[in-house]
Amino acid sequence: MEKIIMIKYGELTTKKGNRNLFVDALFNNIKDKLKDFKFEIKKYRSRMYIKTDEIDTIVNLLKEVFGIHEIDLVYSLENRDIESIKDNIVEIFKDHDFKTFKVSTNRADKTYPLSSMEISKILGGVLLKNYSDLSVDVKNPDMVIDVDLREEGIFVVYKKINGLGGYPMNVQGRALALLSGGIDSPVSIYLAMKRGLHVDCIYFDSPPHTSDMALDKVKKLVNILSKYDSNMKLYVVKFTNVQEAIYKNRANNYMITIMRRMMYRIASTYAKEKDYKILITGESIGQVASQTLTSMNVINEVTNIPVIRPVACLDKIEIMDIARKIGTYNISILPYEDCCTIFLPKHPVINPKIEIVNDIESRFNYITLTINAIDSIREVNTINSKNDLL
Ligand code: ATP
Ligand code: MG
Prior knowledge:
Elements: E1 2-8, H1 19-33, E2 40-43, E3 47-51, H2 55-62, E4 70-77, H3 82-92, E5 100-107, H4 116-130, E6 135-136, E7 143-150, E8 153-162, E9 173-178, H5 184-194, E10 197-205, H6 212-225, E11 234-238, H7 240-248, H8 255-273, E12 278-280, H9 293-300, E13 307-308, H10 316-326, H11 329-332, H12 339-342, H13 354-361, H14 366-375, E14 378-380
Parallel strand pairs: 5-6, 5-7, 9-10, 9-12, 10-11, 12-13
Antiparallel strand pairs: 1-3, 1-4, 2-3, 4-8, 7-8, 11-14
Helix pairs in contact: 3-4, 5-10, 7-8, 8-9, 8-14
The structure holds adenosine-5'-triphosphate and magnesium ion (MG).
Adenosine-5'-triphosphate (ATP) is lined by residues 178-180, 182-185, 203-204, 281-283, 287-288, 290, 338-340.
């Protein structure tokens, strides 16, 4: 017998029609994630198996792959007959650190000559016979010993680790996310990726009003998020002219509303050009003036592609919890100002009126500004910023 890794997919298996597509995508994503290591992987209907000498390292990487429901460390047994399974299970648990247990058998191979109850009973019995300190507790055992009897092999689980869940990255298509340096947008991106989206990011930069440090912070965030999707890109828009034009045209307390409309115009035009199907933002209902329902209507009016706001209905505390879990929080709280904080009016309008917005926007040529801003977009390399802010 040998120690290997068994991968379970969970939610994927309920998607009957798409199943092969999803499993194939997960298979490729895993191979891509592990590309720097030596391993062998096999794919079956509801499990994948990985053989490697570097189990711990590989498991840590698998914890960052969406679509994996559970990562099990298992012994793969050579022989299918019950006598040999008995010998194996005694050997596997010779250094046990639990007192009570139960054996739970999953007889996926329906041709196996014993029932799952019989197998559990036989294997439980042999453990009790060999180890006098052990007893069976079916209700609340220290250890549940899973035995997985499948056509492709017989597996005894010795450790279970939760996977990230969700759908395999990229099975649902491409999205463009408006990424600021704040707490909310990186969390939104994480949640969108969990639904199987490939996400690329767009950041609005306003030099010299914003510093290189603010841009570096965003690069660092992309770096962290790209552990879930190594192909994540960061586009930077030069937004200075747009912001100055709005400012000069006395937008005053409508500054943020109009700035957001410009961001939406630029991002949705660019998304259409580059075949991104939706936009993602970190807006959360009621969190700030630009996120009241009236503001959202006035802002959303300039785009006709779907805008998904994954944290719209989460509390700040819930968003912060996720940010800490995914490792973006400590970067997001660094104090470099983004373009919005610099031009922030004292009292941003809470219930903007579309007539007033139209009036302000008629004072400057927002179409040319949008086109020029799109021309300024460049993709930046995020690798260099790794760790230099921490
Ligand atoms: P965040 O924490 O994500 O910055 P926030 O609560 O601070 O969000 P706002 O600053 O009002 O809210 O921004 C709302 C959303 O607009 C952000 O979540 C982000 O998606 C987008 N956004 C704001 N500023 C920028 C920027 N400079 N570049 C790209 N997107 C931005
Ligand atoms: Mg912000």
